[in-house]
Automatic annotation (TrEMBL):
It comes from the Bacteria. It holds the Pfam family Cupin_2. It comes from Sinosporangium siamense. This is Cupin type-2 domain-containing protein. SUPFAM superfamilies: RmlC-like cupins (SSF51182). Residues 32-96 form the Cupin type-2 domain. InterPro entries: Cupin_2, RmlC-like_jellyroll, RmlC_Cupin_sf.
Amino acid sequence: MELIDAGIFASPDGKANYSEHLRVPAMSLGTYSIPAGATDPQQPHTEDEIYVVVSGKSSFTSGGRCVTVGPGTTLFVPAHEEHRFHDVTEDLTVLVFFAPAEGSLGTKG
């Protein structure tokens, strides 16, 4: 067993920030923090992702669909799909699960 402290993390520099907490071959887990008003610069990943919103509010666009997200919202994004958090109105903290581990299938894009 491994105990992971994946609590609420604030971005240290006022920009979107990803902090990885766990990496094994089959998956990785991290916290993605986006301050209110900041932009989400991420590009599509080569792995499937699950996002679980822990705190904050924003819009999220993926696969041509836009939804409002807040605490408890859970999103699945298949590998290579364009997606982005935007219109972040409250500091956003999201748990991010990659399967397999982020970057293990090649470069983003």
